[in-house]
Design brief:
By secondary structure, the protein is an alpha+beta fold. It has three helices and seven strands; from the N terminus they run αββββαβαββ. The strands form two sheets. It has a five-stranded mixed beta sheet with strand order 1-2-7-5-6, covered by helices on one side. Strands 3-4 form a two-stranded antiparallel ribbon.
């Protein structure tokens, strides 16, 4: 998709990309090697604070999808800062960590909130390989954390 088409899609969805935020610990928000961009895990945030909870306990799948969508918006903001133009970005791989009870098995559905938004905004360049895991805890008690690998073209 062109830069203009991507910006139009974001506007249509009412999405304003956030600026690059400072890391919460001793790591870089992203690092590039060759044409590959490795983006550190981003936690779900709601109203600027960690979106806390555990899937299967106090967060349902639909709410988890909204949290994963919120992470995708933050990831797009980081990609914009790293690449300078989202039209130069192709998502290669997404890895999602879902704060889950031992019996919760819908991590893949939660992660769709991120995957679907990336594909909607970036078109075919947003379609990717993916892993989704249930984990016992995420920093700050967040319900979802997602990292990704992207290819930068041009």
């Amino acid at each position: 998709m062109s830069s203009t088409a991507i910006q139009a899609k974001l506007a249509e969805l009412g999405i304003s990309l956030p600026p690059l935020s400072a890391p919460a610990a001793a790591y870089l928000p992203f690092t590039r090697t060759g044409n590959l961009l490795f983006v550190s895990g981003h936690i779900a945030k709601k109203d600027g604070k960690p979106w806390v909870g555990q899937l299967g306990k106090d967060v349902d799948t639909a709410t988890g999808q909204l949290a994963a969508r919120a992470v995708a918006i933050d990831l797009l903001g980081t990609l914009q800062a790293a690449a300078g133009d989202l039209a130069k970005v192709r998502i290669v791989k997404v890895m999602s960590l879902v704060n889950s009870t031992p019996d919760f098995t819908e991590q893949h559905l939660v992660t769709n909130g991120c995957s679907e938004l990336l594909a909607t905004v970036l078109g075919d360049a947003g379609k990717h390989a993916r892993s989704a895991f249930g984990v016992a805890q995420i920093p700050f008690g967040a319900c979802v954390e997602i990292e990704l690998i992207a290819e930068i073209t041009g």
